[in-house]
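Many introductory courses stop at the sequence. We go one step further.
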Amino acid sequence: MPNNAHFYQPKDGHQLPHDPFNAIIAPRPIGWISSQNAKGQVNLAPYSFFNAFNYHPPIIGFSSIGYKDSVKNAAETGQFCWNLVTRSLAESMNKTSAMVDSEVDEFELANLAKGQSKIIDVPFVALSPVVMECKTSQVIQLQNAKGEQCQTWMVFGEVVGVHIAQSAIKTGIYDTAAMEPIMRGGGAADYFSVSENNKFELSRPK
């Protein structure tokens, strides 16, 4: 690291025009989460803090700044779905990021058809080529190094069902690039896509 590197302590601010944290930890897969409350009201929202965390059983999770509907629903009903966001679904996904009342069905807001889950009760985005049905395993309120609680909640879910479009499977292998997944960048409106041209291979050392 060069001696003239820009250094800052987050508690004092970053001294830059835009917070670099999101841009550094990027691009990030999008957690497009569908859920519903005990009354059956449906919610669909994207989260840029999302990833996979375990193989057996498969566990995925998303983080919500604020106790939003997705967190509330996942905690209340113990269920949610993750929907893969592709380039063709990007604009629809963006529409579901609007701050609207809990009573608003974001599927209808973005003109998205609903698919019926096989194991849980939550609907999914019918046009999404990959969907994971999840049962909520943990809802954790984050805290800082001093043990003080943050207004951010992490939701983990065990994947209990996976839907994959046949077009995504080639010679028995899931083709990531063919599905054109998009990921969140660090700027106010930055997204990235995946293409076959950017692929390279590295074998793990034996």
